[in-house]
Amino acid sequence: MDAIAMIKERRSVRKFKGQPVERETMRKIVSISRWAPSWANFQIVRYTLVDDESIIKRLAADAVEGVAYNTNILNGAPGVAVLSFVKGKSGKLNKDEYATSKADVWEVFDAGIACQTFCLAAHAKGVGTVIMGVINDASISQIVGLPDEETVAALIAYGYPDETPAPTPRKDVEEVLRFAGE
Ligand SMILES: Cc1cc2nc3c(=O)[nH]c(=O)nc-3n(C[C@H](O)[C@H](O)[C@H](O)COP(=O)(O)O)c2cc1C
Fold first, then answer.
1. Phi, psi (deg, nearest 5) at residue 39
2. CA-67 nearest atom, ligand 1
3. How close is the Cα of 96 to the center of ligand 1, in Å?
4. Secondary structure of 131-147 in the HEC alphabet?
5. pLDDT value of residue 1
6. Could you tell me if 92 and 105 are in contact, meaning their C-beta atoms sit under 8 angstroms apart?
7. Does the beta carbon of 130 sit less than 6 angstroms from any atom of ligand 1?
8. What does each C-alpha distance from 37 to 42, 99, 157 come to in angstroms?
9. What is the CA radius of gyration of the chain?
10. What is the pLDDT of residues 25-69, one digit of tens each?
11. What are the residues facing 50 on neighbouring strands?
């Protein structure tokens, strides 16, 4: 699959086949996702994959702020990736001080790039994903037992697609692009 088709044809998938995604396939997807760029190449992002049904059900019940839409997606997903990052590193060029006015925002930026890279890698391997931002970080950390030094960036439900979502609209390029000085 060429890169442009991959970017344009990836869709959020919210209905999955019951069949689990093999751990070896997920290992390959994370192995590709590792190539995402990061602040100072610190590579702070971590992937905790959940393919145990009882843990997924706990995430559905306790980790999405009671939003039924997300609860239903999780209850029908054979897998969930908890995307987390090691706190307090990105944004710094020396150990103690943030280098820019964005301070620690760069760690979330790193997580965002990794998130998209993971979803594109999954798409290339035939695995559908949906990123979830309506989540409760503390509950997720507790349910999956994240190390204290990490915080949750997003949940990504994954599985083999059981739907072919229609393309979602995008703003015209004229709306989002400007050339400075014109
Ligand atoms: C940061 C972020 C948070 C999102 N949170 C949710 C969510 O909580 N639930 C959900 O169903 N979709 C969520 N989405 C998916 C978006 O709704 C989706 O990407 C957007 O509508 C464009 O559709 P597409 O991904 O099919 O291109 C989220 C996407 C992003 C990038």
1. -50, 125
2. 8
3. 35
4. EECCCCHHHHHHHHCCC
5. 75
6. no
7. yes
8. 9, 18, 23
9. 17
10. 999 999 999 999 999 999 999 999 999 999 999 999 999 988 999
11. 80
The count of residues in the chain is 182
User: What's the 125 CA to ligand 1 centre distance in angstroms?
Assistant: 20
- Ligand 1 lined by 7 (C-beta under 6 Å): no
pLDDT, tens digit (0-9, with 9 covering 90-100), for 115-126: 999 999 999 999
Tell me if 108 CB under 6 Å of ligand 1. no
113 lines ligand 1 (CB under 6 A): no
- Whole-number Å distance, alpha carbon 18 to ligand 1 midpoint, is 22
Q: What is the mean pLDDT of the chain?
A: 97
Determine how many CB atoms are found less than 10 A away from the CB of residue 126.
11
CA proximity to 155, closest of 42, 22, 62, 38: 62
Q: Find, among 68, 63, 79, 81, the residue nearest to 138 by Cα.
A: 63
The finding on whether 92 has its CB within 6 A of some atom of ligand 1 is no
pLDDT above 70 as % of the chain: 100
Going through 117-179 in order, the beta strands assigned E by DSSP cover: 128-132, 150-159
CA–centroid distance, residue 180 to ligand 1 (Å):
30
Which tokens hold the place of 121? 């890698």
